[in-house]
Specification:
Helix content is 28%, strand content 21%. The strands form three sheets. A five-stranded parallel β-sheet has the order 3-2-4-1-5, with helices on both faces. A five-stranded mixed β-sheet has the order 6-7-12-10-11. The chain is an alpha/beta fold. It starts with a strand and ends in a 6-residue tail after the last helix. The protein has helices at residues 16-23, 62-71, 92-100, 113-120, 143-154, 175-188, 239-247; strands at residues 2-6, 27-31, 51-55, 77-81, 105-108, 132-134, 159-163, 165-166, 171-172, 197-202, 210-215, 229-234.
């Protein structure tokens, strides 16, 4: 069996189901490149007698993917993934290939940054539009990201903006960097974001999380703990959402 197991962002996020599958594992492969963890994932050893190994991107793609699938034919292999498997992660091709090769697949869900944002910030879950990822403009300018934000604003919907993580290269986009990139793109296009409400979300659900709402340009004046970071662009908040922005997200008067 190949188990895609979400461990959230902290060992305290492990579910009873996750602990059950960890206890049965012959090997636990820890994804170290799609996001960051609050606790050292080596702590999973408390819940398993299986071998604990760390995986880079090449270990889970191409030949590495085939090796893992072949191993899962005769062993219980757990792929421990930050957050919730297949929510803003990159393992869809691995799952499809395992099923195609008649390897049993199990998905064990956990907390995701997407569900945390919709649950924790006081915004109505049904008022979120399409989620986007903002990448560093090293090779191209991410116009499609800001165009989606505009589309959501036109529809009076909030936008979750996930920020670029290149952990194998030691890079993780910060809220300050994201604001600079968005404002430069906005200046080239429609000049709509200077007056937009936004929420900076740092280490949500971690012990040192910080949530701060303000006008998008003003988020640059706040100090945030290190990544992982996200942004939310707020559109036409309802009265109950405005109260949430003030009380939960510390929106200034």
């Amino acid at each position: 069996m190949l188990v895609f197991l979400g461990i959230g962002y902290s060992l305290k996020h492990l579910t009873l189901e996750a602990i059950e599958y960890l206890s049965k594992a012959d090997k636990v492969v820890i994804d170290k490149y799609t996001s960051l963890y609050e606790d050292d994932p080596a702590g999973l050893s408390e819940y398993t007698k299986g071998e604990l190994v760390y995986a880079s991107r090449k270990d889970l793609e191409g030949e590495g993917m085939n090796n893992l699938i072949n191993e899962a034919r005769s062993k219980n292999i757990v792929l421990a993934v930050p957050g919730d498997p297949f929510i803003a992660t990159t393992h869809d091709s691995l799952r499809v290939e395992a099923i195609r090769k008649s390897v049993e697949v199990k998905v064990v869900n956990s907390l995701s940054v997407l569900t945390l944002i919709q649950s924790r910030l006081g915004l109505q879950a049904y008022r979120f539009g399409k989620t986007v990822t903002l990448v560093y403009p090293d090779y191209f300018k991410p116009y499609s990201t800001i165009e989606t934000i505009y589309e959501n604003l036109n529809r009076r919907l909030h936008t979750i903006v996930l920020l670029d993580l290149r952990l194998e290269h030691g890079k993780a986009m910060t809220i300050h960097e994201a604001v600079e990139i968005l404002l430069k793109l906005d200046d080239e296009l429609e000049n709509r974001l200077d007056d937009s409400l936004a929420i900076g979300v740092a280490r949500l659900s971690w012990r040192d999380e910080r949530i701060q709402a303000d006008l998008l340009p003003r988020l640059r004046k706040y100090d945030f703990p290190p990544p992982p970071h996200s942004l939310v662009i707020v559109s036409n908040p309802l009265p109950v959402e405005i109260e949430g922005l003030k009380l939960i997200c510390k929106l200034p008067d």
